[in-house]
Design a protein that fits this description.
- By secondary structure, the chain is mainly alpha-helical.
- The protein has four helices and no strands.
- It has two domains: 43 residues; 44 residues, no CATH class.
Length: 101
């Protein structure tokens, strides 16, 4: 009975230490993000884009005109399937009149 109580106390101690460490980590992360914003470096945060949307738009015109299939263009640009269709969605949001073709 006494051993079980000690084990439960140890588990609670480890759990509270883990929780405290997690909270410290989150606090440091928030402080780092805030510092980056204050330095004006927040715009370049994150994963870089495969290409500019304007470059994709120019290349996608060949699909609109029928010179290439979407798969051929995707492979020639070296894009994954999901990235290609995300860029295509942005293209059609920008040019909704071309979505009917």
């Amino acid at each position: 009975m006494m051993l079980e109580t000690i084990n439960n106390m140890m588990l609670e101690l480890y759990a509270s230490m883990a929780q405290a460490e997690l909270e410290k980590k989150e606090k440091r992360q928030r402080e780092g993000i805030e510092a980056k914003k204050l330095r004006g470096e927040w715009d370049d945060y994150g994963r870089p884009s495969v290409m500019k949307q304007e470059t994709f738009d120019e290349n996608f015109q060949s699909v609109i005109s029928g010179k290439m299939t979407p798969t051929q263009l995707r492979k020639s640009l070296g894009m994954t399937h999901s990235t290609f269709y995300r860029y295509r969605k942005t293209f059609y949001e920008k040019y909704p009149e071309l979505s009917n073709t």
